[in-house]
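Researcher: I'd like a structural prediction for the single chain below. Treat it as a standalone chain; there are no partners to consider.
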Amino acid sequence: MQIRASPLLITAPVSNLQKSQFISLGFKASRAASMAATPELSSEAFKDGWFTEKSTMWPGQGLSIQYDVILYNARSDFQHVVVMSTKAYGKVLLLDGVIQATERDEHSYQEMIAHLPMAALETPATRVLVVGGGDGGVLRELSRYPGVKEIHMAEIDKMVPEVSKKFLPQMSVGFQDPRVQLHICDGIKYVQDAEEGSFDVIIVDSSDPVGPAEVLFEEPFFRALHCAVKPGGIVCTQAESIWFHLPIIESLAGMCGRIFEGGSVSYAYTTIPTYPSGQIGFMLCCKARPTQGPGSGEAPVDPRVARQTPGNVIPPLGVKELQYYDANVHSSAFVIPKFAKDAIGKHLTFQGK
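Model: Treating it as a single chain, here is the predicted structure.
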């Protein structure tokens, strides 16, 4: 689940109807707000049976979805959480007025952010960290790897897993995996406190780099990620849209290249209709691993190659077959358009073949 920036929902009443992952942003919302009555919904965002998402991050456009009913509406210590039922996309999770996941298209994001790093490893992962991802979809995908012994999640907002378990069972099924350890805590601090080389893979569902969320795209956090991942391990973080945010992606790729020196930095993407521009990217940062024999030193991992295979079905959890990801989609995800390659290619270790 990716958190994207948007103005907070404002007020206009609805009846009292009974993902986050707003990971470490360095502040806490007032508890008084979370204990208030059912929050009112924006008359601009919710009007005549239609929900419309707008943001300064993608100016001059919006996305509208017709909804049937508001299933859940509450404010946590960190954000406004809404679940609505729609005909076109099934149940939809909104955080602070921004679409995070829908039953119809969530698999394209969840499968790709999980399997791109997991399948690219030269040695199968045994210990994985997810920062954010409170809807449980990434956990569901990680449960497809029988060799994984521990799956840790650092999620700051306890309301999101609770809501997902109640309303989004096909995503939250991942929480049923006995290997999962959920830590309700500040995600950045969790990474900073981790021992060096603690994880084979770290997956970060980050907010857009605006306001307090800027720290998630800054050097100190990525240095902490580099420290926490094992040699030969991979950090995968959401990396914005090539249609809107090329300067941000270029800056991020350059910074990652400096931090993961000797390793590799690559950009891949997926398509998802309910995210702005219908596309969202991932930065895959592979920590250098030692080589053996003559000329031994450090060498990068090429993430374009799918070396591990996720299980297609996991009967104990009732997980459905993969719907988006396979080995061909894996390799093709690194093939980016010429205009994007011209802008960010100089910072990438590996690009699509």
